[in-house]
Write a structure and sequence with these properties.
alpha+beta, Peroxisomal Thiolase, Chain A, domain 1, ten-stranded mixed sheet, two-stranded antiparallel ribbon, 12 strands
């Protein structure tokens, strides 16, 4: 066992030892099981690839979606005719609804099953889960699929163009600036040093490398066949990252602010897809499905566009308050690491123990396919809760143009 892993296990020992009797009344209420609950019976993702040079760089979004759908239906044995609705979170592919619909049909889903696409930038995958969950809660559906997908190789962020009149408004202009600019603005506004950013980046890289070595991601990755190859592992994790190697990297945005953002302390640009199967609890029991988790709810907030990265600082307290929770009630937080500048500020402002946050690394180490991330966080967090035999997950991310989102999930695969 490595010294760093030993330190990590020692740090989380008090968390792992937490007993059911210590759970707050709010948590105990959320653990109650009702027939109308929205539950998760399947949650897996494709392997992820580095943009432009990774294993998915030549894979179109429709093919990636179709193969993930096909593999998921085979794994779950779900009759696709029983699906009431599908929502796909994605940001930049052209005609996303058309390609998503085509992918579903090619995967064997009947033409009677409707589909929608959702774009709320970095939270798009989470919004797909929320859309299906809300549809089930409203009685419009009993079984639904929520997906997140992005090929940042084939569909990089387009440059938003504003009319002259709109662009005169400072905040409107700020809302469409490159995300790297917002990273530097956060670093400048809150005095987040390059050293601090590299410190948090090293935590992410180290945890992800250890998780990869221990096979933790195998629990959340569904092998898929593409171009006659079976892909079953991320190619985005970079083992061997050190404080020295991070310190040696040049800034990638020297034209903005303090120029502290590097390729080592910013989220990776990547490709990938993920899927969550949701249904009413009584329907899951009727179908004989194993229940992995429960959807509780979400919160979405707006923040100053220039400081986009602070979104989780507003979104996490909002979702906790909505369900009567304290941050101490949450066992694991999955907070997106868009940039180490904003991640460091969020972690320290929220005052959450780092041992509870991204225990297997975050987007700095794993990569950040925009439409996928909200789904991946749910998949990764629920998988880790099962491993730890714990209950409560909070996911959160900053959202381009100046927003934040967060959600609460419950692990039901407890021993």
């Amino acid at each position: 066992m490595s010294a760093s892993l030993a330190r990590r296990l020692k740090a989380i020992a008090p968390i792992l030892a937490r007993s059911a009797s210590s759970q707050s009344s709010a948590v105990q209420a959320l653990l109650q099981k009702n027939a109308s609950d929205v539950v998760i019976t399947f949650a897996m993702r494709s392997p992820m690839g580095k943009a432009k040079k990774g294993q998915l760089k030549d894979v179109p979004v429709d093919e990636l979606l179709s193969e993930l759908l096909r593999a998921s239906l085979e794994k779950t044995k779900l009759d696709p005719a029983k699906i009431d609705d599908i929502a796909v979170g994605t940001c930049h592919p052209p005609s996303p609804l058309y390609i998503s619909r085509a992918a579903a049909l090619a995967a064997g889903i009947p033409d009677s099953v409707p589909i929608s696409t959702i774009n709320r930038l970095c939270s798009s995958g989470l919004m797909a889960i929320r859309s299906i969950a809300h549809s089930i809660q409203a009685g419009d559906a009993e079984i639904g699929l929520a997906l997140g997908v992005e090929s940042m190789t084939l569909h990089p962020r387009p440059t938003p163009m504003l009319s002259e009149g709109v662009a005169k408004t400072t905040k409107a202009n700020d809302a469409v600036q490159p995300m790297g600019w917002t990273s530097e603005m956060v670093a400048e506004a809150y005095g987040i040093s390059r050293e601090k950013q590299d410190h948090y980046a090293l935590i992410s890289h180290t945890r992800a490398a250890e998780a990869l070595q221990r096979g933790f991601f195998n629990d959340e990755i569904l092998p898929i066949k593409l171009s006659d190859k079976i892909l079953a592992q991320d190619d985005t994790v970079r083992p061997g990252v050190t404080a020295q190697s991070l310190a040696g990297l040049k800034p990638v945005f020297p034209q903005w602010g303090p120029a502290t953002t590097t390729a080592g302390n910013a989220s990776g640009v990547g490709d990938g897809a993920g899927l969550v199967l949701l249904m009413r609890r009584d329907r899951a029991e009727k179908e004989g499905m194993e229940i992995l988790g429960k959807w509780i709810g979400s919160a979405v907030v707006g923040v100053e566009p220039k400081l986009m990265g602070v979104g989780p600082i507003k979104a996490i307290p909002a979702v906790l308050e909505r369900f009567g929770l304290e941050k101490e009630d949450v066992d694991i937080f999955e907070i997106n690491e868009a940039f180490a500048s904003q991640f460091a500020y969020c972690v320290e402002t929220l005052d959450i123990p780092i041992e509870k946050i991204n225990p297997n690394g975050g987007s700095i180490a794993l990569t950040h396919p925009l439409g996928l991330t909200g789904v991946r966080q749910a998949i990764t967090g629920l998988s880790e809760l099962r491993r730890r035999n714990e209950s409560v997950l909070c996911t959160s991310m900053c959202v381009g143009s100046g927003m934040g989102a967060a959600a609460i999930f419950i692990n039901e695969a407890r021993r």
